[in-house]
Amino acid sequence: ASSAKVRPETAGEGGAPDHPDPRKVLREADADARAGRYEQALEKHLWVHRNAVQSQPALRGVRLSFALDSWFKLGGVYPPALAALKDARDQALNTFKLEHARDAFNDFAAINRTLREEDRTAAAFIALDKDDPAMARQVFGTARRALLKAKDYALCGKYLKAQEDLSVALERFRMQK
C-alpha cells in the first residue's frame, strides 16, 4: 500500500496533485472511506502524511492529530490501512534513530498515541535516555505524556525543568487571558 499512487480529485497526470490542498485531500479520504473506497482513502491518507507539511507547514498539528485519527478509523474497517499506519510509525522511529530528526520522533509518538500504544514511545525514550541523554532532553516534551502514562516518574524528574515549565504555562495563561 505504501507504493500506491494517490488519485485525489485534485490530481493531475500520474496521480500527483497539481495544486495540492492537503485539507481537501483529507476530506476526500474521509469521503472515500464513507463510500467504501478504502484503497483510495488509504492512498490519500498516505499522501497527506507524506506531503501535507511540505505543502502547508501550518498543517503540522492537523497531520499529527485529525489526519491520524481519520487514518486510524479507516484501519478499523480496512486492515491494510492499519498496517500502513504501523509501518509509518516504524519508519518514523527508524528515521529518528538514523538522523536524530525531532520531527520523526514527533511522528512516532503521535502515531503511537493514535494507536493507543504509548508504551512504545516510553520504551524508545528509555532506550534513548541510556544511549543519548542530550537527544533525549530534546524530545522529552514529546515523550512526557507516554512516560507519565507508564508511571516512570523518576525518568520524568530527570528531564523536567519545573521553573521553565511554570514560566511557559504562565505565559500561555496570560496570552489566553
Describe the protein in words.
By secondary structure, this protein is mainly α. It has ten helices and no strands. The chain has helices spanning 22-34, 38-55, 60-63, 66-77, 79-99, 102-115, 118-131, 133-149, 153-159, 162-176. Helix 1 (22-34) runs antiparallel to helix 2 (38-55), helix 2 (38-55) packs antiparallel against helix 4 (66-77) and helix 7 (118-131) runs antiparallel to helix 8. The longest helix has 21 residues, at 79-99. The chain is globular and about 50 Å long. The protein starts with 21 loop residues before the first helix and ends with a helix.
Topology:
Blueprint: H1 22-34, H2 38-55, H3 60-63, H4 66-77, H5 79-99, H6 102-115, H7 118-131, H8 133-149, H9 153-159, H10 162-176
Q: In short, what is this structure?
A:
Helices cover 76% and strands 0% of the residues. By secondary structure, the chain is mainly alpha-helical.
Report the principal-axis shape: globular
Helix and strand content put the structural class at mainly alpha
Compute the average pLDDT: 88
Largest sheet: none
Strand content: under 5%
Total DSSP helices:
10
Helicity range: over 70%
Low-confidence stretches: 1-16
Radius of gyration: 18 Å
Q: Which oligomerization state do the chains in this entry correspond to?
A: single chain
Spell the H/E element sequence. Answer: HHHHHHHHHH
